[in-house]
Design brief:
41% of the residues lie in helices and 15% in strands. The protein is an alpha/beta fold.
């Protein structure tokens, strides 16, 4: 297959789904994925890697994607699953759930990154696909907006950690809160910084 041009449409006559994940790096919260089959008759302007868009633009595109796409599904793997099977396998599992959750099953799947879940779909991995392929960019937006909103909600449920700001990533603010408060129920205990603080607490 020739190298994809920047932001070509992923529609080529077949039902093509793009799939992406958000949340491999954070110390807390689920890993969230999305799968999207775009409608070639309803183009969406401004699709891109969700990390390159402003929050306002992501929110607007979030609604537009859900309105215009032929099919979309948001899925996840839980913190418990991440701790049990590791973040890579949990991410692949969540991607599989997202594609299987589409109400229109795709004929081909484009997966962001360099690994493909175990499934029966014709598929290929596209490195940095969220910034190169429209349907993967759309999936990255659905996943990021969903996860960010969940982490903002967790900020009220677990005050003091600053989840609304850092979204669970290991910032200085987050690490200082972990030192002061210890882990909360949405922290990934298999991750080194969280595990280290649990071990420190058990020593006293």
């Amino acid at each position: 297959m020739p190298e994809l041009e920047p932001f070509v449409s992923c529609y080529s006559g077949d039902l093509v789904a793009g799939v992406d994940e958000v949340g491999r790096g954070p110390l807390a919260g689920d890993v969230v994925t999305a799968a999207v089959i775009l409608d070639p008759n309803k183009p969406i302007d401004g699709l891109n890697d969700s990390k390159k868009l402003s929050e306002k633009k992501r929110d607007a595109l979030f609604d537009e994607i859900q309105t215009k796409a032929l099919s979309w599904c948001i899925a996840r793997a839980s913190v418990a699953e991440i701790d049990e099977i590791n973040i890579l396998q949990a991410s692949l599992l969540a991607m599989k759930r997202a594609v299987e959750g589409l109400h229109i099953q795709p004929e081909h799947v484009l997966v962001d990154g360099n690994k493909i879940p175990r499934w029966t779909y014709a598929a290929e991995a596209v490195v940095k696909g969220d910034g190169r392929v429209a349907c993967i960019g759309a999936a990255s937006i659905l996943a990021k907006v969903t996860r960010d909103r969940e982490m903002v909600a967790f900020d009220s449920e677990y005050p003091g950690y600053g989840f609304a700001g850092h979204k669970g990533y290991p910032t200085k603010v987050h690490m200082a809160a972990l030192d002061k408060l210890g882990p909360c129920p949405i922290h990934r205990v298999s991750y080194g910084p969280v595990k280290a603080r649990i071990e420190q607490m058990e020593m006293f």
